[in-house]
Amino acid sequence: MDAGSYTSVSSEKMRSRMRSRAPLREVGSTVFIPPLRSSSLSNPLSRQSSADRFIPDRSAMDFDYALYALTESRKEKENSSSATASPSKEAYRKLLAETLLNNRTRILAFKSKPPTPTDGFLSGSTSDPLTSSSHLTKPKQRRYISQTAERTLDAPDLVDDYYLNLLDWGSSNVLSIALGNTVYLWNASNGSTSELVTIDEDVGPVTSVSWAPDGQHIAVGLNNSHIQLWDSTNSRLLRTLKGVHRSRVGSLAWNNNILTTGGMDGKIVNNDVRIRSHAIQTYRGHTQEVCGLKWSGSGQQLASGGNDNLLHIWDLSMSSSTPPPNQNQYVHRFEDHMAAVKALAWCPFQSNLLASGGGGSDRCIKFWNTHTGACLNSIDTGSQVCSLLWNKNERELLSSHGFTQNQLTLWKYPSMVKMAELTGHTSRVLFMAQSPDGCTVASAAGDETLRFWNVFGTPEVAKPVPKGNSVPFSSYNHIR
Q1: pLDDT (tens digit per residue) in 100-134
Q2: How big is the CA angle at 147 (ends 146 and 152), to the nearest 5 degrees?
Q3: Which residues pair with 252 in a beta bridge?
């Protein structure tokens, strides 16, 4: 179509089509065509000012004679020199011409491979340090990450409360989850389900669960401020901790024999479960409910997040049963989050690195150096951050989210590039737990489902998990 036909079209639709097609052509460019002849180059003898010798301007006869003298004398000299040239000189000229021709044809041409050595230290022997297979590094293959859950279990009556912690995976490969007033145990080795305890209506619902390091004992926090300690092997209640808090206990964290509890009253209490007077230390700093508690790998620092948008770092040596008035116990107090801080995760490969996630009004994942108190990075995820888990084998972080996508997002650390987004839940993914081998992640959401994701790789010895239909974890293939 030419320019005239473009101007004849007046509809807005055709103008939009022209604009969309604009990148396919070069706009405003013209083609330069050099002149085929030049007056200054039409006659080489007329450029007297740039000639290599002076020719006097006399007559036409003189011009012709001068041209004859110049050309004929040069030819005679060349003929005479060639007639008297020696055979060796002729051979040298021929060799020089062939060399120049070969060099011109070899420009930008591929070189032939050098011959394979037959002996010496480059012969490719197994003892050669330069060619040994042990020194050849193969490129690392990218891990396949499945976008769908490997297994989906029904979890009816799961309390949809952001501030609670109702899921944990113990070291004995048993998953515990609180559904309403009942705590269920799901054995990941054989897929069997058992009921640990059902709390009375006036005491429940269950507000938190946490496995002890031995994988046999489990702590259960209740809505009436009590904490129960159970032996899961015999389904036996060992003791009940009372008088620790004045309201529900929504967060629990173990540090060897110390059980740390966080309540709606804002208090954090260290309980030594071996002694009668179990409440040995108290941390005071939060003004609202404590919804996140995590001990560092060394057991020296405790991170706590609350509904007051605060994140505190406590040191084990600074705790006290009777803290002095007007004296801060915390090592660091971070006020950068703009919503409740529930998601907390200590880095497994850097002891002083902590990741924290904010609620719906914040939506950020922040990274902290707990030695210096510096905020290393902050990423706006676009949605409520409910839980965080580090990959134990790679520098990766997994986060679970609420509205609008209700997804799990895998991040590469420290670039924080998204590696995968796992979707399937139809409500906010409130809780996550990691298997003992560090490969599988269980997620529980407000849609009353429990899903298992092979997001961190494949275990070295994979044990088959038979499908079970036991209530309340009955497998199903539809979304309710």
Answers
A1: 566 555 544 444 555 555 544 434 444 444 444 44
A2: 95
A3: 261
